[in-house]
Amino acid sequence: MQLLLKSIDFAARAHRDQRRKGPANEPYINHPIEVARLIAECEPATSQDILCAAILHDVIEDCGATQDEIAICFNPVIAGIVAEVSDDKDLPRPVRKARQIETAPDLSDAAKLVRLADKIANVGAMLTDTPIGWDRAEILRYVDWAEAVVAPCRPVSPALSARFDAIIRDVRVWHLEENQQTGT
Ligand code: ZN
Question: How far is the CA of 183 from the centre of ligand 1 (A)?
């Protein structure tokens, strides 16, 4: 429990100046907390190290924290999982997105759990707090891409996999309903 609270404290400080992309302008920390909650709900036997990694999963990519720093503050297992799910921000966005699909099959089971929950949270946000400026086509492209990333991660958690299916179905149904309303 102490290590988990320490990870929340660390991530909250690291993300303190960030907000989610939606109109609700939510503090960024809501996202990693949601990711850890999803894992804990669907896979109650998950180790504390993996839950801490879920809380910390964006601090390397978005806040400039390093794997070494996390290994020292927490432990090398947590740091390794966070590093696995971190994009290299020096690469252009399309390359990073393609890499997530390419590397997903090689992730550890722990990283696959985090990846799966991360995509559930992000696709869910498309419905509840759609990123400002995203049109429907962009949202659907994101959902298709997330589905491709998640495909090799599904076996680590049938429960998370089912949650993912439910949320992408909701987004696609919403899209169809919007189309019917607008006649497009
Ligand atoms: Zn994330």
Answer: 34
